[in-house]
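thought: fold this chain, then report.
action: predict
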Amino acid sequence: MTTSSWIDFLRSGYSCSDHSFFAPFDMEPHMTDLSPFHITRKWPAQHPEHLQLYSLPTPNGVKVSIMLEEIGLPYEPHLVDFGSDDQFSPEFLSLAPNNKIPAILDPDGPNGHPLPLFESGAILIYLAEKTGKLLPQDAAARYETIQWLMWQMGGLGPMFGQLGFFVKFAGSQFEDKRPRDRYAAESARLLGVLDQHLQGRDWIAGEYSIADIAVFPGFAPWRISTRPVIWCSSSASATCAACSMPSSLARRCSAA
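observation:
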């Protein structure tokens, strides 16, 4: 399966409910007092028995939303408004000191105690282990999945973020195009890695998993066509020409 067909399959509405998974934890809801957590003063919990999600619909932010929908775990979403600098508020920093979304507060954490958690990769692993879904039980398959999750966290995610800044946002006004070209080239290289890995595969790590959930949202801001591509706005079409795409990948520049 190529990257584009993998993306199409994700977009088609595939749900993990099509499969049977072993859930090692009691998932029955219970009432928990979350008032000791400073973050609830800014974002009060209307349903404290549900997992509390603090996020924004960005490529990084929606990873946990997708995961929660797939595993069917009840949650209460709270919008962290970047326009109002919510991510720098004392309440948010009390839960996520790195001032990055997403973050969660699970009232039914390990040993029945509330668990605050930040970093999307850590949250995906936690939710997978909590529910026994979307992370293989077999040790070898488990670590294969985690390695691709780490690949997204340390490679594709940051590079796509930088590419977006230098192509679509404020960085596109910089006269020095070397930063743009660097992130374009590295993004192209990473797309080549993914495309090669997906040859003959339906999913990144053998079966639908947290690796797919982590990687997919990064493609949402770009116009996906037939193969992995870097899409550029008409005002930055030179970026595509600067990308040294692998020979197996199509390259297209299209107007926004």
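thought: worth noting. The beta strands are 51-55, 75-79, 103-106, 115-118.
final: tokens above.
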